[in-house]
Amino acid sequence: MEVTAQLKHLQTSARKVRLATQFIKGLDVLVARQQLMFSPRASARPVLKLLNSAIANAEKNFELDKENLYIKSVLINEGTTLKRYMSRAFGRAAVIRKRASHIILVLAEKKPSSPKKKSTKPAAGKKQTPEQIVSYKDLTRTQTDRKDNKPSFEEIKKERKPFINIKEIKDKFIRRSGEG
Description:
This protein is α+β, with helices and mostly antiparallel strands and 180 residues long. The chain folds into 2 domains: 2-109, CATH 3.90.470.10; 136-177, no CATH class. The chain has 7 helices and 3 strands. The chain has helices at 14-21, 29-37, 44-61, 136-139, 143-149, 153-159, 166-177, and strands at 2-10, 69-87, 93-109. A 3-stranded antiparallel beta sheet has the order 1-3-2. β2 (69-87) and β3 form a beta hairpin. α2 (29-37) packs antiparallel against α3. The longest helix is centred in the N-terminal third of the chain and has 18 residues, at 44-61. The chain starts with a strand and ends with a helix. The mean pLDDT is 82.
């Protein structure tokens, strides 16, 4: 079984990412993780996060053992290039290319394992049975709970502070300043 993880629009050039990932192809997942942890290249950190994500997907979704996984392939493609301009001498403009890259990481099993139980989630396009449907109302509080927690209009009215007249505030201010 193969597990795929993708990282798109990484703001690093594909050439720099290829330099960070060239030594992990074909390695055991745990060894590759350590290689990326101690790599001095800055682009190794996002690749490490992608590898951890692929391992977590394999364990959670496909119930595979991480000791039985290896990196089958790492594909790095060029992404979109943002073009920015910088002023140069004699009124000229120079193009600055901010390159991005896409990474596709494929993990595979060393020894094929027995197929595990299928998930209970329905496939796309298949209808759910009434037992599988859980309404939003069941997950939230009931209508009676909401009514009990809300204060009544009379309680809100009692909690309000009485309205203060602007004239009273003005009179207090004038008395304090000694002009009244």
